[in-house]
Amino acid sequence: MADVVKLYGVAGSPFVCRVKIALNLKEIKHEFVVEDLSNKSADLIKYNPVHKKVPVLVHNGNPISESLVIIEYIDEAWKGVSILPQNAYEKAKARFWAKFIDDKCQPALFKAIASHGQEEAVAEVHEQLQFLENELEGKKFFGGDNINLVDISATFIAYWVGAAEEALGIKILIKDKFPKLIEWSDNYVNCQVVKDGLPPRETPVAFFKKRFGKA
Ligand SMILES: N[C@@H](CCC(=O)N[C@@H](CS)C(=O)NCC(=O)O)C(=O)O
């Protein structure tokens, strides 16, 4: 029997896009079920009763939530290109950086964006981003020649930060400070599997204007 794969999400969510990109990498056919987060569906509450958030992947009726968990599930459940390294140490390192991006980088970036690029908040985010800049030394992607879990985790940095900069007229990813990260962003968002998983740029730009723009 053919697999039935449904992804519950909203087009503008960087967490949902992570999952779309992982599905694209593995060439997994799926149905995208659009959620209204201001009026969550009974399915979403049933499938993710703990967090009640998207993304949720439902594979043959089995729900999985939390984007990083879903990506690891996709990697294990389907053959094709590997998203996590095979080597135990490299795998642990990939998980470490993905968690670092979620726990440290994204919250710091959000704070810097919300503050309209206030100096202290930007300095804090630069401290975090420097670790990623160093990690890219001698590599095209965090995964080396190919995209891996860390690249997908950093989708917000590659795409949403530029949209926030445009929407609010601020600068966070400074070229002189983060040449590798900027080169990586360009390479990453121009991969077809990534492009196919991202919303049009107007979507995040409009989101940041509405959420943080001056009235
Ligand atoms: N840690 C979660 C975060 C997911 C998340 O924050 N999703 C947002 C959309 S971007 C959401 O569903 N928000 C609805 C809510 O908070 O009620 C993941 O990695 O999947």
Structure description:
- This protein is of the alpha+beta class and 215 residues long.
- The chain folds into 2 domains: 5-77, Glutaredoxin (3-Layer(aba) Sandwich), CATH 3.40.30; 88-212, Glutathione S-transferase Yfyf (Class Pi), Chain A, domain 2, CATH 1.20.1050.10.
- It has helices spanning 14-25, 42-47, 67-77, 88-114, 119-135, 149-153, 155-168, 179-189, 192-195, 202-212; strands at residues 5-9, 31-34, 56-59, 62-65.
- Strands 2-1-3-4 form a 4-stranded mixed beta sheet, with helices on one face.
- Strand 1 (5-9), helix 1 (14-25) and strand 2 (31-34) form a beta-alpha-beta unit.
- Helix 7 crosses helix 10 (202-212).
- The radius of gyration is 17 Å and the shape is globular.
- The termini are far apart.
- The mean pLDDT is 97.
Q: What is the N-to-C succession of helices and strands?
A: EHEHEEHHHHHHHH
What is the terminal separation in angstroms? Answer: 54 Å
CATH level 1 class label of the largest domain: Mainly Alpha
- Chemical compounds bound to the protein: glutathione
What is the CATH fold-level name of the largest domain?
A: Glutathione S-transferase Yfyf (Class Pi), Chain A, domain 2
Arrangement of strands in the largest sheet: 2-1-3-4
Proportion of strand residues = 5-15%
The CATH architecture of the largest domain is Up-down Bundle
Tally of individual helices: 10
Alpha carbon gyration radius: 17 Å
Structural class: alpha+beta
Question: How many strand units?
Answer: 4
Q: Low-confidence stretches at least 5 residues in length (pLDDT < 50)? A: none
GO molecular function, one term: glutathione transferase activity
Family: Belongs to the GST superfamily. Tau family.
Pfam family, one: GST_C
Keywords: Transferase
